[in-house]
Design brief:
Layout (H helix, E strand, L loop, with lengths): L4 E4 L5 H15 L3 E7 L12 E5 L5 H7 L1
Parallel strand pairs: 1-2, 2-3
Length: 68
C-alpha cells in the first residue's frame, strides 16, 4: 500500500510502550509519523524514526508519579 501521514496521540504508560514498536515500523515503511505528546511524560525519548511534537501541561513529573 502507499505510505501516508499518521498522527499519534499516545496515552501514558503501557499504552505507549505497546504502540511505540508499531509506530516505528510504520515510519520505516515510509509513513510520515508525528507523535503528539505532553511535555511531562515517562517515555519522552528522542526517536530516530518519527517526529515528536510536545504540548505544555500544568502537571509536573512528580505529580504524575503521585497520581499513579
Amino acid at each position: 500500500s502507499d505510505a501516508g501521514k499518521l498522527l499519534v496521540v499516545p496515552m501514558g504508560g503501557s499504552h505507549w510502550l505497546s504502540m511505540q514498536h508499531v509506530v516505528e515500523k510504520l515510519s520505516e515503511r515510509g509513513h510520515e509519523v508525528v507523535v503528539l505528546m505532553s511535555e511531562v511524560s515517562w517515555q519522552m525519548q528522542m526517536p530516530q524514526a518519527y517526529v515528536v511534537k510536545t504540548y505544555p501541561v500544568s502537571q509536573t513529573l512528580e505529580e504524575l508519579d503521585n497520581t499513579f
